[in-house]
Amino acid sequence: MAELLMQCSVREFAVCANQVGVLERCNGSQRVRVGRRGLIRCGAVDDGKVRVEVKNGNDLLDICRVINGMWQTSGGGGKIERDSAVDSMLKYADAGLNTFDMADIYGPAEDLYGIFINRVRRERPPEYLEKVRGLTKWVPPPVKMTSAYVRNNIDISRKRMDVATLDMLQFHWWDYSNDGYLDALKHLTDLKLEGKIKTVALTNFDTERLQIILENEIPVVSNQVQHSIVDMRPQQKMAELCQLTGVKLITYGTVMGGLLSEKFLDTNLSIPFAAPPLNTPSLQKYKRMVDAWGGWSLFQTLLRTLKTVAVKHGVSIPTVAVRYILDQPSVAGSMVGVRLGLSEHIQDCNAIFSLTLDEEDVNSIREITKKGKDLMRIIGDCGDEYRRA
Fold this sequence. Notes:
Radius of gyration: 21 Å
Distance between the termini: 63 Å
Low-confidence stretches: 1-44
Mean pLDDT: 88
CATH superfamily of one domain: NADP-dependent oxidoreductase domain
Strand content: 15-25%
């Protein structure tokens, strides 16, 4: 098998067309072995643009800023075949997209990660494994949060993901009238001290509860919230508190289930068969968000503006949409959903790292978004969409 040695002056990522290449990183240079079937495209991207640290006190985790969201493994996005899904996970990680987000309630997501991480251990070098991150969530029912109950549930995730220590445990709570969330978080902090969890985080908590949690000296590093060009609620109360405390935001819904893409540009949903079907739960959910924000006509104006920016930079609409949110205050990372084994968007995701939006780009986008309604007034703070009667 022929080999090619590439030396790079800055830390880089490589994309292997068919996953034959093996990456070897060392002190700012990169050695890539390429087989006779393999082609490596090597792009120079400062690692500081690719990865970021989330931290609170001594608790710290570095993650890829573009995160592979695995919620579609829970159903609604097409049937997931196990081996193809794991192959796809390896392909994303080989391209430098090596942070995965999942949950105990996302069907087989944690199990798939367990299979994936074992293949990484067997088939990739140790320095590759050191960069892989698995972020999971725990979404318990509002029952009494005893130490044993919390421990047992975290042990289930550790077993499914086949790791001794969870990189990040993101905690969700349905009912704020039940303050058991504080008990649960204190028990999670105890498990962190035992080495079963590396970092404790939140998902879909509002600003008021985040402040209460921090006042109780629970060292959360991040809060995962819905955030897109249409839904800018996190940049109101939440981002202000995050800037004061150092807590970071991890965002989802950033491409609105695919609505923020060329696929829906210049389409009319009111005419049968004149637009792609809204055939996934995510598309239906974010279409309702568009309706609340300003309607389909204003959304089309936004898409046309994003397309102009995308063409200017030689990228896609989703790439612009994610970059815009990554540039917002307190945002550490943004999730892009992956339909493992069914479709992929590795090239678009890696283009995010090298994209820089200039003042003209940002102003053109803001000119449209300011015409939309204030979703904070309509929906409420971050996560309130899940708690409204």
